[in-house]
C-alpha cells in the first residue's frame, strides 16, 4: 500500500472516557491518500465509482456534554475502477470548523447542552449550534454535497480529489436539512428545510445543472424536527411528526424535545413542482421516523417504506449518569425500536393504511437508486449493537416474497450505511454490491467491504485494508463513475 499523509489537523480534545469519543468512535486527525491497496480477496472489475462516507469527527474539546451528532465533518472515500481501489479522507472546511481552528477552541455548544453557552451565534433550525455539515453526503451535478441535520449551508467538494469547493450558492435562508434526495433519472435534487419561524418548513428542487428552480412553503402548525423526505415519480413526501421542541420552552431559549402521542403523524404529498395549494395531507399513527426507504405510485395509492419507531422517546440506559444514559438511549435503535414499515396513502379516498414489514430492529436502509421513486423488489437495512450507535450488519429483504437474509460483520466489527452499487452491465435489480467501511476493534484497523447483493450471507467478496483505523460513521453514498466523468470530463479518476 502506498500511503501519503497530506495533513494533520490541530485538535484540543483531552483524554476522555466518553463512549462516543473512544473505542470505535475514536476521532481521526490525519488526512491521508492511499493507493496500491492491500486486499483480502480480489477487487471485482465490474464496479466503477466512489463510496463516500461522512463522519462525525470532532477536533475541539466540547463546551459541556458531547453528542456524536456534534462532530466535525470528515469524508472518507474509496474509489473503484478496473479492479483497483484508492482511499482518501479529508475534513470539510466548514465556516465553523475554520473559525474554531483559528480560535484554537470550541465556539459552539453541542445539542446536549444549553445553547446559550455558545460563544458565537450558530446556524440552522436551532440557531445556536455549529453547522458542522457532518450528517449526510450526496452527489449531485457531479459534485459532493455535505449537509447538517438541523439545517445548514451545504458544502460542495470534488468527489475524486476531495478539493473543497465551498458553500453551495443556492442555499436558502433557512438552509438545507440533512437528507436531500437525488433522482438519478432526472438529475434533480429534492430538498427541504425547517425552522422556528412560520411557515416552519420549505421544500425545493434543484435541477441537474445545479440551479434552484423551485422553492415553496410546506407549512406545519409550529416548529417541527423532520429528518428525511421521500419521493415518487411525480410527488415528494414531507412530514409533520408529533415529536418536536416543547413550544412553551422555546421562547425561553430552551430546546427540549417532547413526544406528543396524542397527535397523528402527518404526511404532505406534493407534486414535484407543486405549491402549498396542491398539498394533500394524510394522517397516520403517531411515531417518529429518522429515515425513509423507497416510495412509489401504484394505482390510486402512494406507497412509502421507512422505519417506524415504537418508542420515540425511550427511557435512559441503565447503569450510567442520567444525561449520558438518555443520550445513549436516544441514539440506540433497540431503545427507540425502529421497525421496517409500510404506509399506503390512497389519493382517491384520502385514507392511510400501514403495517410493519419486519419485527426486527432495523434502520439506515438502502436500495437500488435506479428504482428510486418506482416500485422496487429489494431493500437493504442495517442493524446495530444493542445499546450502541454502531452498525453490526445488514439485512436484505425481498419485498415481493417476504424473504430476508442477514450478514453480521463479526465480533467488534462496525460498519457504515451500506448503499447498493449496481454492477457494470447489471442484468437485474439486485445485481451488484453493498459497500461499507468497517472498523475492526480486535484487529485495530479498518476495511472497506464489498458484499455480493445477490448472496449477502456468503460474506464479503473482498476486503480492502485502510491505511488507518477510522472512526465509526453513519451516512454514506455511492457515486457512479461513468456519470461523474460525463459531468466532469476533465476528471479521469
Ligand atoms: Fe440521517
Describe what this molecule looks like in 3D.
- With 493 residues, the chain is mainly beta.
- 6% of the residues lie in helices and 39% in strands.
- It has helices spanning 95-103, 322-330, 333-336, 481-487; strands spanning 2-8, 30-35, 39-41, 49-56, 73-81, 84-91, 136-140, 143-147, 155-157, 164-167, 181-183, 188-194, 201-206, 212-217, 230-231, 235-240, 243-245, 257-259, 265-271, 280-284, 292-298, 301-309, 338-346, 352-356, 363-366, 378-384, 391-398, 404-408, 413-414, 420-422, 432-440, 445-452, 460-465, 476-480.
- Residues 135-136, 178-179, 227, 290-291, 475 line the site of fe (ii) ion.
What binds here, in terms of ligands, is: fe (ii) ion
- Overall 3D form: globular
Find the count of extended strands (DSSP E, 2+ residues): 34
Helix content: under 10%
The largest β sheet comes out as: 6 strands, antiparallel
Treating each run of at least 4 consecutive H or I residues as one helix, how many helices?
4
> pLDDT under 50 segments (min length 5)?
489-493
Distance between the termini: 18 Å
Radius of gyration: 21 Å
Mean pLDDT: 96
Strand percentage lies at 35-45%
Order of strands, main sheet, comes to 1-2-6-5-4-34
Class from secondary-structure proportions: mainly beta
Amino acid at each position: 500500500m502506498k500511503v501519503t499523509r497530506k495533513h494533520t489537523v490541530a485538535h484540543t480534545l483531552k483524554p476522555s472516557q466518553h463512549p462516543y469519543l473512544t473505542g470505535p468512535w475514536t476521532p481521526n486527525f490525519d488526512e491521508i491518500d492511499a493507493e496500491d491497496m492491500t486486499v483480502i480477496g480480489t477487487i471485482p472489475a465490474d464496479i466503477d465509482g466512489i463510496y463516500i462516507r461522512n463522519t462525525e469527527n470532532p477536533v475541539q474539546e466540547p463546551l459541556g456534554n458531547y453528542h456524536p451528532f456534534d462532530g466535525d465533518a470528515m469524508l472518507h472515500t474509496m474509489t473503484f475502477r478496473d479492479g483497483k481501489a484508492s482511499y482518501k479522507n479529508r475534513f470539510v472546511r466548514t465556516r465553523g470548523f475554520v473559525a474554531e481552528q483559528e480560535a484554537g477552541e470550541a465556539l459552539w455548544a453541542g445539542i446536549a447542552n444549553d445553547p446559550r453557552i455558545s460563544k458565537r451565534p450558530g446556524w440552522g433550525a436551532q440557531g445556536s449550534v455549529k453547522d458542522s455539515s457532518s450528517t449526510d453526503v450526496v452527489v449531485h451535478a457531479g459534485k459532493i454535497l455535505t449537509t447538517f441535520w438541523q439545517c445548514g449551508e451545504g458544502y460542495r467538494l470534488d468527489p475524486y480529489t476531495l478539493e473543497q469547493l465551498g458553500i453551495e450558492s443556492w442555499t436558502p435562508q433557512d438552509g438545507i436539512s440533512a437528507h436531500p434526495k437525488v433522482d438519478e433519472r432526472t438529475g434533480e435534487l429534492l430538498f427541504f428545510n425547517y425552522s422556528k419561524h412560520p411557515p416552519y418548513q420549505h421544500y425545493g428542487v434543484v435541477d441537474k445543472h445545479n440551479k434552484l428552480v423551485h422553492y415553496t412553503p410546506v407549512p406545519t402548525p409550529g416548529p417541527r424536527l423532520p429528518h428525511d423526505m421521500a419521493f415518487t415519480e411525480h410527488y415528494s413526501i414531507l412530514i409533520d411528526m408529533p415529536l418536536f421542541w416543547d413550544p412553551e420552552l422555546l421562547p425561553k431559549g430552551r430546546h427540549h424535545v417532547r413526544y406528543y402521542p396524542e397527535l397523528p403523524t402527518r404526511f404532505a404529498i406534493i407534486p414535484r413542482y407543486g405549491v402549498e395549494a396542491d398539498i394533500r395531507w394524510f394522517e397516520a399513527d403517531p411515531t417518529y421516523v429518522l429515515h425513509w426507504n423507497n416510495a412509489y405510485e401504484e394505482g390510486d395509492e402512494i406507497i412509502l417504506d421507512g422505519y417506524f419507531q415504537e418508542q420515540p422517546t425511550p427511557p435512559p440506559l441503565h447503569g450510567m449518569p442520567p444525561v449520558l444514559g438518555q443520550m445513549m438511549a436516544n441514539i440506540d435503535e433497540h431503545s427507540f425500536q425502529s421497525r421496517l414499515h409500510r404506509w399506503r396513502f390512497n389519493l382517491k379516498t384520502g385514507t392511510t393504511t400501514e403495517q410493519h414489514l419486519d419485527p426486527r430492529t432495523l434502520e439506515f436502509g438502502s436500495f437500488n437508486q435506479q428504482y428510486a421513486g418506482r416500485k422496487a423488489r429489494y431493500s437493504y437495512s442495517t442493524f446495530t449493537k444493542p445499546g450502541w450507535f454502531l452498525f453490526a450488519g445488514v439485512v436484505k429483504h425481498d419485498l415481493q416474497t417476504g424473504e430476508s437474509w442477514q450478514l453480521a460483520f463479526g465480533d467488534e466489527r462496525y460498519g457504515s450505511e451500506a448503499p447498493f452499487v449496481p454492477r457494470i452491465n447489471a442484468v437485474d435489480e439486485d445485481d451488484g454490491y453493498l459497500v461499507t467501511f468497517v472498523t475492526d476493534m480486535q484487529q485495530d484497523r479498518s476495511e472497506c467491504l464489498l458484499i455480493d447483493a445477490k448472496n449477502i450471507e456468503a460474506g464479503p467478496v473482498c476486503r480492502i485494508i485502510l491505511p488507518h483505523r477510522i472512526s465509526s460513521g453513519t451516512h454514506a453514498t455511492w457515486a457512479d463513475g461513468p456519470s461523474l466523468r460525463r459531468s466532469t470530463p476533465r476528471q479521469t479518476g
